[in-house]
Design brief:
alpha/beta, Leucine-rich Repeat Variant, Double Stranded RNA Binding Domain, 5 strands
């Protein structure tokens, strides 16, 4: 799957737009914009354009952006660009970010590494994944939390290397060589507490992996996240809702980092 279209908010700009804006710019100018612009959209455009200039001198500024840019959208753009640039010397820099805090960056890094390594095996489907129910079972019953859980979970599963999501429960009969795993998940806890004028929001998610057929329980994967902000956030409903959503997404991302190993155990 092409990740350029999902790197939000800044990477919603298309590659064609990036190239149109910078087609006449040299590597040095693009690198300068990537390193110095305060506008993340400009940095994203510059990173994507550097991937297509065909100049190996673009590698180092892209690696620096991947290492140090505070915006996940820019780091993801740098990873995408390194994969397009095709310089295998970028592999160590990309490997440093396989555990990046951002799910989108991790997905972009994995795709870039697969491209640079020529790793056909990494791009081949090894596991068929059926996504079952994803429910909010926390005490906070806000519908937006269930939506956040479902979206973040599906995005995370879709980004796992070697995994293909399927909807047909009978697919195993046509692709018997591939193991089939069903996953169900819950938002188990979402808690709020106030300590010394700070609001602490904590979330915990759990996913159960079932080996198919028969839905044999094989593995439990947990993810946790916590954010501490000013207690005044409670006075701004929009900011309060955004806080809860982000913490749920971070808990999902935490679980996704553990999911590949769990899948390997289940399918052995």
């Amino acid at each position: 799957m092409n990740r350029v279209g999902i790197i939000a908010p800044c990477l919603m700009l298309t590659l064609s737009l990036a190239m149109a804006g910078h087609a006449q710019s040299g590597t040095a100018e693009l690198a300068r914009r990537l390193e110095t612009s305060r506008d993340c959209r400009v940095r994203v455009q510059s990173a994507l354009a550097l991937g297509h200039v065909g100049d190996q001198a673009a590698r180092l500024p892209l690696e620096r952006a991947l290492d140090s840019d505070p915006r996940a959208s820019v780091r993801a753009a740098a990873a995408v660009a390194l994969g397009v640039l095709g310089d295998r010397r970028a592999v160590p820099a990309l490997e440093r970010h396989e555990d990046d805090a951002s799910l989108t960056v991790r997905q972009s890094v994995q795709e870039a590494l697969a491209a640079l390594r020529g790793d056909a095996e990494a791009q081949t489907t090894k596991v068929l994944l059926q996504v079952g129910y994803l429910r909010n079972l926390s005490q906070d019953e806000a519908p937006a939390l269930a939506t956040a859980l479902r979206r973040a979970s599906r995005t995370g599963f879709d980004g796992l290397v070697g995994v293909r999501i399927v909807t047909d429960p009978n697919l195993a009969t046509t692709e018997q060589a591939l193991p089939v795993v069903k996953v169900t998940g819950i938002l188990k806890e979402l808690t709020m507490s106030v300590t010394k004028g700070k609001l602490v929001c904590e979330a915990r998610v759990e996913y159960v992996l079932h080996r198919m057929p028969g839905q044999i329980l094989e593995a439990l994967v947990r993810g946790n996240a916590k954010a501490t902000v000013s207690a005044s956030v409670r006075d701004d409903q929009r900011a309060f809702d955004d806080l809860r959503r982000r913490v749920v997404e971070a808990a999902v991302a935490s679980a996704m980092r553990r999911t590949p190993e769990a899948l390997r155990r289940v399918t052995q």
